[in-house]
Design goal:
The protein is of the alpha/beta class and 178 residues long. It has helices at residues 2-19, 52-68, 156-170; strands at 24-29, 40-47, 72-73, 81-101, 106-107, 110-111, 116-136, 142-151. The protein has 3 helices and 8 strands. It has a 6-stranded mixed beta sheet. Strands 5-6 form a two-stranded antiparallel sheet.
Length: 178
């Protein structure tokens, strides 16, 4: 009986670990775009997510990522590319059910071993989405799009680390063709 409970506990732990939210980053770009010709960029907030401190942090992070790739910041009307940031948050919920007892051997009419109980709990979490769009200098043709999603923490330090990881993933192979 003790072995069955241990195996059940391990199974629940593995299932929960497999279902844990992981950072999701996707990138797409126009294969015909000449990223080698782009030397300067302007950056602006396209969709606010209502947190000016976080918005500045994200703007600074993306600016740093692009300058590390060799691009330079320029005024909006004079830049080779326009970078537009969009952010959103969404509250999601998760249901977790835990079972205990009732895991005895096989009896005459099915599983035996006593009555089991099930407890279901609901948890809510917030998922943040960041979209980074890079347009040509006219602002009409989308050249590159990166999207990062992750569960947000109530701890600023954790969110700063997640932003850094997302930025690293977004711009890992940037600019395309380099």
């Amino acid at each position: 009986m003790k072995l069955v409970k241990t195996m059940l506990s391990v199974g629940v732990a593995v299932a929960l670990a497999g279902g844990a939210w992981a950072q999701d980053v996707k990138v797409d770009y126009d294969k015909a775009a000449n990223f080698g010709a782009i030397k300067t960029f302007s950056l602006k907030l396209g969709t606010s997510w209502g947190n000016p401190i976080c918005e500045k942090r994200v703007t600074d992070e993306i600016t740093q990522a692009l300058t590390e790739k060799g691009w330079k910041v320029a005024p909006e009307g004079q830049a080779d590319a326009q970078v537009v940031l969009h952010g959103a948050t969404e509250t999601k919920r998760s249901l977790n059910t835990f079972y205990s007892g009732g895991m005895g051997g096989y009896g005459y009419r099915g599983w035996g071993g006593g009555m089991g109980t099930a407890t279901t709990t609901e948890s809510q979490y917030t998922v943040g989405t960041l979209v980074v769009d890079i347009f040509d200098k006219t602002g009409k043709n989308l050249l590159w799009r990166g999207v990062a999603q992750d569960e947000l923490s109530d701890k600023t330090d954790k969110n700063v680390k997640k932003l850094g990881k997302a930025s690293d993933k977004l711009f890992k192979d940037f600019p395309p063709g380099s």
